[in-house]
Amino acid sequence: MAVFKLDNVEDLYEIGSVLGSGHFGQVREVRERATDVLWAGKFLKLKKGAGSRLGLERKSVEKEVEILQSLQHQNIMALKDVFESRAEVVLIVELIKGGELFDFIAEKENLTETEAIEFMKQILEGVRYMHQKTVAHFDLKPENIMLSDKHAPNPDIKIIDFGMAHRFIQGEEYKSLGGTPQYIGECLSGLSPFQGETDEETLRNIVAMKYEFEPHCFSQTSNMAKDFIQKLLVKDQSERMTAEECLIHPWIKPLNRTQIAKRNRSSINMKNFKKFNARRKWKMSFNMVSACNRFCRLQLLCKARGPEQQELRDCESDQEDTGTKPASLLRRRLSSSS
User: What's the gap between Cα 45 and its chain centre?
Assistant: First the structure.
């Protein structure tokens, strides 16, 4: 069961600068007063009622918190504390400053498969641990694979964002329509083997398991790497490699010197990778702008309607209620807007 504290977060942590913001809240740097250690605080706005259009359902936050509190692994973002007030939940999590793995790779002029495997092994270690705990992430994509410190000699991978994660119960059947499946294979070639002319065609290829390793994109990719990918691109889950099996595949754990030599001679297609990463970042920015535009239109629509209409009352239920908000939240709101 998820454990929430009712303490005032500002009694234990000094609230710092904004690191990022989204539709449901913002992330701020926080300093633990007792130890001076820096953490990240995720301030998540909760829905006020069934008719509320803004904020997160408390049940979904509880689910994420329960999962994170049960996962303690070097390659998974750590959750330290959770605070709850009437208006929001604050998650105190590990401060991860190294940025996204894909951005780190894109800055390099060249990268061998051997170097890429060191990152892949860490991702697989984290996934294996999750699966041992009967947890599936359901949204493993470049944006959710971070580095603890990109300047470290051997940066640690950190898997983040467990908002779509699910803990399985024996015998349960679970279906998820979320996730971003087209990223498989792009780390090595800069192009998905499922790639179509449009997103819709790419999705159709994924559903039909229709893919190919185009020579002009995968010419620098070793046969062992292709075999590794093919054993993951299997529709029948019972026939697909598990994270445990991935870690002993010859591409990850070579059986002899010949396999090591072949792996060392292969490299990442950096030209395509840089192009892919630039497209990915542009698409993320485009989606964010579109979401902001939709949010602004919703606000304008609410303002344009008469106060007697139910739609307006629904919108008003999501506005800040400074008259009843705890003093600590008021102080943080005022300091962040000054």
Answer: 19
